[in-house]
C-alpha cells in the first residue's frame, strides 16, 4: 500500500509542520476516541430517542467491526517511524488499511447527518471527517490510500446501514427474536474476526457492549418503557449524572471480579451496556422522571 506515490504524498505533507499544528492535529485525530462515543451514545439513548440510540450503536459497531475485519484481511504495515516523522503513535496500533479514523467517523456521524437532514450539519460533518482523516497523514500513522480507502469503504457501509435501518432499530421484531439476535449478532461478528485474524482487546469489549445493548434495550422496551424526552432540564441533567455514575460503578467495580482478559472484558462491557440500557432507564422512570398517569379510557403510552 505504501507505493512511491503514497510515500511522496506523505513526505510532502510532512514538510509543513510546526509545534502548533502538531497539537492541533493531535486534538483532531483524538476526535475519533472511544470517550467521544461513550459520551454521545448515552446522550442519544437517555435524552433523545431510544430506537435511534440503538440504531446508532449498531452503526458504530458495524463501522468498527468491518474496519477491524478488513485490517486483518489486508494486513498492511504502517509507515516506518525511522523514515517518517510519526506523532501520537499510540493512536495507530495494528494494521494500516483501511484507516479506522477515516471509516468509522464517516459511518457514525454520517448516519446522524442523514437522520437530521440539516445541510449545515452535513457540511460540518464532512469537514470533520476530512480533517480527522487528514490528521492521520500529518502525524504519519497511515498511508494516503488508507485514508481514501477508509472513506470509500465508509460510504459503502453507511449506505448499507441507512438502507437497513429498521432492522437495527428492532422495529417490528418480537422480544424473543431481539433477545436471540443479542447473542447471535455479536457471536457471529466475534467468530468472523477470530477466523481471519486475532481478536484484539478493543474488539472484545466492543462486541460485549453491543450484545449487552441489544439485550438490555430489548428488555427495557418490554418491561420499563421510559420516555427519554420526558423531564425538565434539571431532571435531564440528573439523569446524566446518575446514569454515568451507575455505568462507571459497574465498569470499575467489575474489574475486581472479572479477569483482565479479552473474555473478561467482553462480560464486563456486556454488563455495563445492560446497566446503561436497562438498569439506568429503570432508575430514571422510577425515581427521576416518572411517567404520567394514563388518561382515563386510554392505554398508557411511552
From TrEMBL:
- Superkingdom field: Bacteria
Q: Does the keyword Coiled coil apply?
A: no
At the top of the EC hierarchy, this enzyme's class is hydrolase
Its EC number is 3.6.1.27
What sections of the protein cross the membrane? 31-48, 120-141, 147-163, 175-196, 202-225, 237-257, 269-289
Any one GO MF term held by the record is: undecaprenyl-diphosphatase activity
Q: Is Zinc-finger set as a keyword in this record?
A: no
Per the database record, which ranges form the Phosphatidic acid phosphatase type 2/haloperoxidase domain? 52-162
Q: Which InterPro entries match?
A: PAP2/HPO (IPR000326), PAP2/HPO_sf (IPR036938)
Q: Which UniProt keywords apply?
A: Hydrolase, Membrane, Transmembrane, Transmembrane helix
Q: Name one Pfam family in it.
A: PAP2
> Can you name this protein?
Undecaprenyl-diphosphatase
Which organism does this sequence originate in? Answer: Symbiobacterium terraclitae
Amino acid at each position: 500500500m505504501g507505493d512511491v506515490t503514497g510515500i511522496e504524498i506523505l513526505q510532502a505533507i510532512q514538510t509543513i509542520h510546526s509545534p502548533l499544528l502538531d497539537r492541533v492535529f493531535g486534538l483532531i485525530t483524538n476526535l475519533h476516541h472511544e470517550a467521544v462515543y461513550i459520551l454521545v451514545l448515552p446522550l442519544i439513548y437517555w435524552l433523545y430517542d431510544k430506537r435511534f440510540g440503538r440504531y446508532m450503536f449498531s452503526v458504530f459497531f458495524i463501522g468498527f467491526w468491518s474496519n477491524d475485519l478488513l485490517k486483518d484481511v489486508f494486513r498492511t504495515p504502517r509507515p516506518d517511524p525511522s523514515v517518517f516523522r510519526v506523532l501520537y503513535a499510540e493512536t495507530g496500533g495494528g494494521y494500516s488499511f483501511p484507516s479506522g479514523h477515516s471509516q468509522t467517523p464517516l459511518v457514525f456521524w454520517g448516519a446522524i447527518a442523514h437522520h437530521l437532514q440539516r445541510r449545515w450539519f452535513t457540511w460540518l460533518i464532512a469537514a470533520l471527517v476530512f480533517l480527522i482523516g487528514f490528521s492521520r497523514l500529518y502525524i504519519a500513522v497511515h498511508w494516503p490510500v488508507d485514508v481514501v480507502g477508509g472513506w470509500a469503504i465508509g460510504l459503502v457501509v453507511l449506505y448499507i446501514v441507512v438502507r437497513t435501518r429498521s432492522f437495527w432499530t428492532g422495529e417490528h421484531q418480537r422480544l424473543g427474536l431481539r433477545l436471540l439476535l443479542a447473542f447471535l449478532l455479536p457471536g457471529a461478528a466475534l467468530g468472523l474476526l477470530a477466523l481471519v485474524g486475532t481478536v484484539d482487546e478493543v474488539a472484545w469489549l466492543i462486541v460485549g457492549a453491543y450484545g449487552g445493548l441489544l439485550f438490555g434495550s430489548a428488555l427495557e422496551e418490554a418491561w420499563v418503557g421510559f420516555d427519554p424526552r420526558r423531564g425538565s432540564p434539571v431532571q435531564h441533567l440528573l439523569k446524566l449524572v446518575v446514569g454515568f455514575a451507575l455505568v462507571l460503578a459497574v465498569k470499575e467495580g467489575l474489574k475486581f471480579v472479572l479477569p483482565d482478559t479479552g473474555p473478561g472484558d467482553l462480560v464486563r462491557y456486556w454488563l455495563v451496556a445492560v446497566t446503561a440500557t436497562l438498569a439506568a432507564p429503570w432508575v430514571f422512570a422510577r425515581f427521576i422522571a416518572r411517567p404520567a398517569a394514563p388518561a382515563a379510557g386510554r392505554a398508557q403510552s411511552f
